[in-house]
Structure formats: structure tokens, C-alpha cells
Amino acid sequence: MMLPMAGNNPKSLTHNPQPSSPAVLSWLGGHSQLVLLACLLLVGGTTAFITLIDLVEDGASRRFDERVLRAFRRPGNESQIIGPAWTEEVARDLTALGGIAVLTLLTAGVAGYLLIDRRYGSLLLLLGAVGGGLIFSTLLKHLFHRDRPRVVPQLSFSMTTSFPSGHSMLSAIAYVTLGALLARFVQRRLLKFYFLSMGLLLTFLVGISRIIMGVHWPTDVLAGWSAGLVWALLCWLVAQYLQHKRLVERAEDVTGPDEPA
Asked: Could you tell me which CATH class the domain 35-72+86-251 is placed in?
């Protein structure tokens, strides 16, 4: 009579599940330092946004806000911006880069390319990031009913409440997300850094232009930057996780050789 071998023993094939952490936490713990850095920035941005809320509600930021707004205007004639005569026109052009019309056209253009190239996962992430960010920004404005500044004359038309700055928040979401998307199309780290830096630069210029035009308190802009970067980082982390699960195109799929027409 033959003895059963260990490999044929049904008991040896039985899998004893071991307790483990949730899949997302396990992925975060074992993933790249870049992902962990993004998590730290996510926490930092959230903390900054909450701190700004406390400062605004307590009135502790009032003096800072007023001094910064007046610093961009001519002494004795606060209806004029400091600098050359064309400064106001440049500021108006920059502030338009964070407007709904420009961001919608830009997002639609990139979405059209992703649709034609059949990158449906990236398309859904882009639309979710920008569209969800617009909804998030609108909800925050309804939650915090802060009046627009009247310290200096406003040089641009505005309809909604002030906190947080919608232009600053949406530009952070759109331009940082697009910068990260473009960075996936190249292999060189210098080019990746360039795309992300341009996204951050455009975000910065849009926010500063809102202060120069007198339509936002500086703390509105800081809060918009914080909330926008938090949302963009959150979307980027979701994209990385979905790529890990192969639910979204991986970077190597994007940067691979072109398919024949």
C-alpha cells in the first residue's frame, strides 16, 4: 500500500488565510517614495486649509489680508495697480486662465485626444478630477459665506462668495492634473519636472492675479491653492492605485512605441 505523498495530501493544499491590512493601505506601505511623499503633502495641505479656516473665522487674518491687497495698489490712488500701465491688462489675462471657460476648453481638448487614442481610463480620471473639483469648489463656497474684499476697488467682475478662491482652486486642480498627465508621456525626469513645474507656475500666477485684481483676499487664494492641490494629489493617488490594479493605462503603455495607423 502506497503512502500518500505530501504534495497529494489535500490538507497540504489548504490555504490558511493570514490577517492582513486593507489592500489600499498595503499598497501604500509597499509602494514608491513618491506615493508616500504625496500622502504627506495631502495631510499637509489639509492641515493648511483647516488652519486658514480658523484664521478667517476668528478674524485673525484681516490685517494681513488688507495689507497685502493695498501693497499692490498705488498710494493715494488705490484704483490703480502698481507698475507700468499694462500691468492691469496682464493681470486680467492671467486671471482668465483660471476661469471656467478657459479650463473647460482646455480640459475638453485633452479629453478629446484621450478619447481618440482610446485611453478611456485616463479620460475618466481627467473628467473626474476636473469635474469633481468644480463641484467641490462650489460646495465650499456655499459652506463659507465670506464677502468679497472692499478694501480696494475691484478690477474684475465677480458673482460668487469669496472663500476659497475658485480660480485658484480650479487652476491648481486642472493644471497640476494636466501636468501629471503630460509627465506620463515622457521618460526623461527633466521633462516630467518641467510639466509639473509649469502646472504649478500657472496655478501661482492665476492666484496672484486674483489678489492684484482686488477680487479675493490673500487667504482666499491660499485656501484655494491648498484645497486644489489636495484634490489633485488625491486624484493622482487614485490614478496610481488604479494603474497598480491595471484598471487604468500604465505609464509604460503610454510611453511605448506608437501603434501603426
From this structure: mainly alpha
pLDDT digits 0-9 by tens, 163-196: 999 999 999 999 999 998 888 778 888 998 999 9
Provide the pairing of β-strand 73-74 with 77-81. Answer: antiparallel
Residue found under cell 469633481: 132
Domain ranges of the chain: 35-72+86-251
The answer to whether the CB of 155 falls within 8 A of the CB of 149 is no
pLDDT band with cut points at 50, 70 and 90 for residue 3: very low
Question: Cα-flanking dihedrals φ and ψ of residue 87, to 5°?
Answer: -60, -40
pLDDT digits (tens, 9 = 90+) for 68-106: 999 999 988 888 899 898 999 999 999 999 999 999 999
pLDDT in the model for residue 140: 92
C-alpha to C-alpha distance for 177 and 124, rounded to whole angstroms: 13
Residue type, 56: V
- HEC assignment per residue over the chain: CCCCCHHHCHHHHCCCCCCCCCHHHHHHHHCCHHHHHHHHHHHHHHHHHHHHHHHHHHCCCHHHHHHHHHHCEECCEEEEECCCCCHHHHHHHHHHCCCHHHHHHHHHHHHHHHHHCCCHHHHHHHHHHHHHHHHHHHHHHHHCCCCCCCCCCCCCCCCCCCCCCHHHHHHHHHHHHHHHHHHCCCCCHHHHHHHHHHHHHHHHHHHHHHHHCCCCCHHHHHHHHHHHHHHHHHHHHHHHHHHHCCCCCCHHHHCCCCCCC
